[in-house]
Write a structure and sequence with these properties.
By secondary structure, this protein is low in regular secondary structure. Helix content is about 0%, strand content about 10%. It is built from no helices and 2 strands. The protein has strands spanning about 10, 65. Strands 1-2 form a two-stranded parallel sheet. The protein starts with 9 loop residues before the first strand and ends with a strand.
Length: about 70
């Protein structure tokens, strides 16, 4: 029996988006200026170990994970 004791996985979370292009429109400001956003900072990846798992075989063939 071959044991799998080391695996390499690639994980990716969100990238935060591109933001928003918008301009201010108010009654008494003819050229209001920009009012768009910068986008978010993206998501986080949290790895939690399971003490009941004694093999890495489920991760042997699936290497890429997206949150």
């Amino acid at each position: 029996m071959k044991f799998v004791d080391e695996v390499r996985i690639h994980v990716a979370a969100g990238d935060g988006g591109n933001g928003c292009v918008a301009f201010l429109r108010e009654k008494y400001r003819p050229r209001g200026g920009p009012a768009g956003g910068d986008g978010g900072r993206g998501g986080d990846v949290v790895a939690v170990a399971d003490p009941g798992l004694n093999t890495l075989a489920p991760y042997r063939y699936k290497h890429h994970f997206r949150a």
